[in-house]
């Protein structure tokens, strides 16, 4: 795209350097800041220590909210898959009247801003039906992950020939048996990818959970924001860095072993 | 393709009913609240637009509304400009390097937005890197107030959503006929003309997809304006949160929710139309 | 071969939603026959095959197999095998496990299972590929796995969907031989669906030609090839010159034409290109196109009857484009058609 090779030689590395520095730099700064020995968040870090990283593990509320977020990410994603896999299967294998309506309804939570979903749930599920905050969070995160589950699982079902099910049936398998024997093993990669995508989405989700917090019931990101407002020490940086490495590690492993990006 | 309707419904309905009950119905009721007279002591109810006129008569709300639109638009345009440069640079790399750089671009998407936004406090704060550098270089005497401003929100949103634009443009550039640029050059187009007459039309769809993602993302981001804008520089999402958490004004919150949804849908439809209008032209040609 | 029907379709009607694909179809097939269902796409041949397999519910009518009414028997209990056009191998299973799939469901285990699987794989010559995944095999090998997978189940009827269409010319001949061998060795009743007349003629004992959801003609390959009964079948098996007959005269391009010699009484007459005599005769036409085809030469003539396709031996002198030629459609060579459409 550059008029001459000199321009081209400079343009490409320079652009890439600036863009990547802008995208990744802040994250590296967080990582560096979490090794600071000082009492306040600062860069360059004052000295070197592991005290803030150690502190993350001792803050009681972090432990509780981490547990909550983990529960929501795993449980919500699992529930979304339990609902989403049969729905995806029906949408891809059957001639279903109103298929588009169903597809729209299950994918809708992705379009609507999370804060609205959270508030709607608070006002019209939690309050009128006396639903507990934990359960409401679970429902919200399930609904939030459902569109991803349906999208990713549908994609891997669409890549799988449907006549292998007929072949299985003609070899003596029942319809249900054919699903478990020949469909499920072949969409395993898609399901695992959906799980990872759902897990990361749910774990990092903030707006949905904003209004859904009660005494002692909070997701980790909400807890981090609340903590930041009171204490400005590097422990949130340390926690952010740890979580980021966790996410990156999971996604990297998924890409390595599943070819994650094929499905997402 | 199976034909058993009952079976299909039995498989699909649980998910649909769940999404409808937990998501669709509550959200629709919430949105309808914005159009209702509040019921006080059993009196009231009925449909009205007064909440909307009230909302827009406040100059604070107007400011927030316009700021949200403005930030959405600016972030989209700037990310498109940077996105084209970055996407061009990336597609010109050899496959291995391309994979790695694409990985680095996507990487931030995996990191919690809280962590990503939080980093900007360290960079843009009173004693942050930018202010340290400016003072060390003698550009400014006293620390600049960058944090809790529109600029800070803009930077945060740009960093949050730029990867989506770059990814969309990379795939658009890769799907572009390989010889289009050399062909245009041979026909005597300069680089500006090549971009404007060849690259832009051929990658319009990718631009539209990226643009929709960035614009609606910026519109509906909560964490970035909450952390980098503080309680004074509000966007619609943070205003909505304040209306509920501080003022307990649920009707105003419903109005904002409605506006946010209308804006996202309008952006989606508008941009989709831009993309399909072009397809029709191509199909007719 | 007994005359009694082994598989019979009685007044079979099949439909997708409101559109009827096959209407009131009757067909009897004897045990051990190799039948081809031949027709253009959309003629209902695949639909019929799927109904025999039980993959498509029957709207009305009956399917009987080996003395039992299987119309409403579910496909996993029919003892009908199907080799899919795409082979439909299970991508996550090895060749061995693909072949073992149905046997395991039957409850076979241990050495009995192993023996059957091994002999099945061996019979299609893939013993050294037993541990491969389908993706690591060529198309021809995949098809043989699919064949073995169906055959180890010892089906009463084996259905094959366009078994040769995905193969290149060399493999086609190989597979054709393979299918004939399997049929001879096991005596299984085979029905295969094809849109390719050459395939049907080469392979089948009997050919069922289908058109728009109904049977147009049933007969031996020789019957179908030499004595098509309708203009549709004639056209399908290479009679390029097909005309309606009205009062002993040819009806073409809106006019009637007298034939030399006595025309048989029929609804129409058909000539293959090589049945047309060039050089003499009552008709005249202009050479519009000509092409050399090895041992013969093809001509396309523009005539008052419309376009006529003729074929002569390549050793004959060449007629240039634009030449006016006399030609004849000899009545004694014409194949009479009882149906003209």
CATH class of chain A: Mainly Alpha
Q: Can you give the mean pLDDT of chain A?
A: 87
Largest interface: A-B, 81 and 82 residues
Number of strands of chain B: 0
SS element count, helices of chain A? 11
Family (chain B): Belongs to the binding-protein-dependent transport system permease family. CysTW subfamily.
Keywords (chain B): Cell membrane, Membrane, Transmembrane, Transmembrane helix, Transport
Transmembrane segments (chain B): 12-31, 71-93, 105-125, 146-170, 182-200, 207-230, 250-271
InterPro entries (chain B): MetI-like, MetI-like_sf
Q: Could you describe the 3D structure shown?
A:
The complex is a heterotrimer of chains A (264), B (285) and C (341). By secondary structure, chain A is mainly α. Chain A has a single domain (59-262), classed as MetI-like fold, CATH 1.10.3720.10. Chain A is 72% helix and 0% strand. Chain A is built from eleven helices and no strands. In chain A, α3 runs antiparallel to α10. The mean pLDDT of chain A is 87. Chain B has one domain (49-284): Orthogonal Bundle (MetI-like fold), CATH 1.10.3720.10. In chain B, 77% of the residues lie in helices and 0% in strands. Chain B contains 13 helices and no strands. Chain B has helices spanning 5-33, 50-57, 59-91, 95-110, 113-124, 129-136, 150-175, 180-186, 191-202, 204-220, 223-229, 236-245, 250-284. Chain B is globular. Chain C has 341 residues and is of the alpha+beta class. Chain C folds into two domains: 5-232, Rossmann fold; 235-337, OB fold (Dihydrolipoamide Acetyltransferase, E2P) (Beta Barrel). Chain C is 25% helix and 36% strand. Chain C contains eight helices and 19 strands. The chains are: A mainly alpha (264), B mainly alpha (285), C alpha+beta (341). Chains A and B meet through α1, α3, α4, α5 and α6 of A and α1, α3, α4, α5 and α7 of B. Chain C: It is a peripheral membrane protein. Chain C: GO terms for molecular function: ABC-type transporter activity; ATP binding; ATP hydrolysis activity. Chain C: Residues 7-237 form the ABC transporter domain. Chain C: InterPro entries: AAA+_ATPase, ABC_SmlMolc_Importer, ABC_transporter-like_ATP-bd, ABC_transporter-like_CS, P-loop_NTPase. Chain C: It comes from Neorhizobium lilium.
């Amino acid at each position: 795209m550059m008029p001459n090779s000199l321009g081209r030689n400079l343009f490409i590395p320079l652009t890439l350097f600036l863009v990547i520095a802008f995208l990744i730099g802040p994250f590296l700064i967080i990582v560096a800041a979490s090794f600071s020995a000082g009492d306040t968040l600062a860069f360059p870090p004052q000295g070197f220590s592991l005290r803030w990283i150690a502190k993350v593990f001792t803050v009681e509320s972090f432990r509780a909210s981490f547990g909550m977020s983990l529960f929501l990410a795993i449980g919500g994603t699992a529930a979304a898959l339990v609902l989403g896999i049969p729905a995806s299967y029906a949408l891809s294998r059957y001639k279903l009247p109103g298929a588009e309506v169903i597809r729209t309804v299950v994918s809708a939570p992705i379009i609507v801003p999370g804060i609205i979903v959270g508030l709607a749930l608070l006002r019209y599920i939690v309050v009128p039906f006396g639903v507990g905050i934990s359960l409401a969070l679970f429902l919200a995160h399930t609904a939030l992950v459902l569109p991803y589950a349906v999208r990713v699982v549908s994609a891997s079902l669409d890549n799988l020939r449907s006549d292998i099910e007929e072949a299985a049936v003609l070899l003596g398998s029942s319809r249900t048996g054919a699903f478990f024997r020949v469909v499920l093993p072949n969409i395993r990669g898609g399901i695992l990818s959906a799980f990872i995508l759902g897990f990361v989405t749910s774990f990092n989700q903030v707006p949905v959970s904003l209004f859904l917090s009660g005494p002692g019931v909070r997701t980790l990101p909400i807890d981090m924001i609340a903590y930041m407002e009171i204490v400005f020490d590097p422990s949130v940086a340390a926690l952010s860095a740890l979580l980021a490495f966790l996410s990156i590690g999971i996604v990297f492993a998924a890409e390595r072993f599943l070819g994650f990006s094929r499905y997402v | 393709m199976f034909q058993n309707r009952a079976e299909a419904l039995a498989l699909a309905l649980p998910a649909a009913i769940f999404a409808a009950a937990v998501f669709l119905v509550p959200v629709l009721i919430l949105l309808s609240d914005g159009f209702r007279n509040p019921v006080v002591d059993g009196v009231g109810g009925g449909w009205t637009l007064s909440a909307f006129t009230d909302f827009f008569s406040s100059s604070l709300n107007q400011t927030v509304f316009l700021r949200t639109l403005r930030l959405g638009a600016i972030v989209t345009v700037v990310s498109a400009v940077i996105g084209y440069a970055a996407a061009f640079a990336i597609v010109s790399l050899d496959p291995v390097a391309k994979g790695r750089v694409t990985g680095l671009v996507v990487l931030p998407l995996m990191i919690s937005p809280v962590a990503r936004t939080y980093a900007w406090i360290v960079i843009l704060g009173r004693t942050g890197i930018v202010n340290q550098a400016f003072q060390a270089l003698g550009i400014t005497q006293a620390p600049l107030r960058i944090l809790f401003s529109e600029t800070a929100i803009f930077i945060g949103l740009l960093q949050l959503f730029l990867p989506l634009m770059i990814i969309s443009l990379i795939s658009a550039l890769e799907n572009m006929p390989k010889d289009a640029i050399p062909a245009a050059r041979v026909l005597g187009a300069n680089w500006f003309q090549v971009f404007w007459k060849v690259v832009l039309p051929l990658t319009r769809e990718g631009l539209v997809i990226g643009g929709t993602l960035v614009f609606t993302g910026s519109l509906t981001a909560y964490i970035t304006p909450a952390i980098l804008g503080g309680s004074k520089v509000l966007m619609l999402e943070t205003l909505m949160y304040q209306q509920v958490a501080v003022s307990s004004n649920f009707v105003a919150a419903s109005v904002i929710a409605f506006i946010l949804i209308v804006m996202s849908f309008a952006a989606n439809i508008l941009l989709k139309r831009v993309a399909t209008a072009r397809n029709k032209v191509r199909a007719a040609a | 071969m007994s005359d009694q029907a082994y598989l019979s379709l009685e007044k079979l009607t099949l439909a997708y939603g409101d559109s009827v694909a096959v209407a009131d179809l009757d067909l009897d097939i004897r045990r051990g026959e190799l039948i081809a269902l031949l027709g253009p796409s959309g003629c209902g041949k695949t639909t019929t095959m799927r109904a025999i397999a039980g993959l498509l519910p029957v709207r009305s009518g009956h399917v009987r197999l080996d003395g039992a009414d299987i119309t409403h028997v579910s496909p996993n209990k029919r003892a009908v095998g199907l080799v899919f056009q795409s082979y439909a191998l299970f991508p996550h299973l090895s060749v061995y496990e693909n072949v073992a799939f149905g046997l395991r469901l039957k409850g076979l285990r241990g050495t009995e299972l192993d023996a059957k699987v091994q002999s099945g794989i061996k019979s299609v010559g893939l013993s050294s590929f037993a541990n491969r995944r389908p993706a690591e095999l060529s198309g021809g090998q995949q098809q043989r796995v699919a064949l073995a997978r169906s055959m180890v189940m010892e089906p009463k009827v084996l259905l094959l969907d366009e078994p040769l269409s995905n193969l290149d010319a060399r493999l086609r001949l190989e597979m054709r031989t393979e299918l004939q061998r399997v049929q001879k060795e096991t005596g299984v009743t085979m029905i295969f669906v094809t849109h390719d007349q050459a395939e049907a003629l080469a392979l089948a004992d009997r050919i069922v030609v289908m058109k728009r959801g109904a049977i147009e003609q049933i007969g031996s390959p020789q019957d179908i090839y030499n004595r098509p009964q309708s203009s549709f079948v004639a056209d399908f098996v290479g009679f390029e010159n097909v005309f309606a007959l009205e009062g002993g005269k040819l009806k073409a391009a809106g006019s009637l034409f007298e034939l030399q010699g006595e025309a048989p009484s029929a609804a129409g007459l058909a000539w293959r290109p090589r049945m047309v005599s060039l050089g003499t005769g009552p008709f005249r036409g202009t050479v519009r196109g000509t092409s050399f085809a090895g041992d013969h030469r093809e001509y396309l003539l523009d005539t008052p009857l419309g376009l006529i396709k003729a074929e002569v031996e390549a050793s004959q002198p060449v007629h240039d484009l634009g030449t006016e030629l006399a030609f004849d459609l000899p009545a004694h060579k014409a194949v009479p058609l009882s149906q003209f459409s």
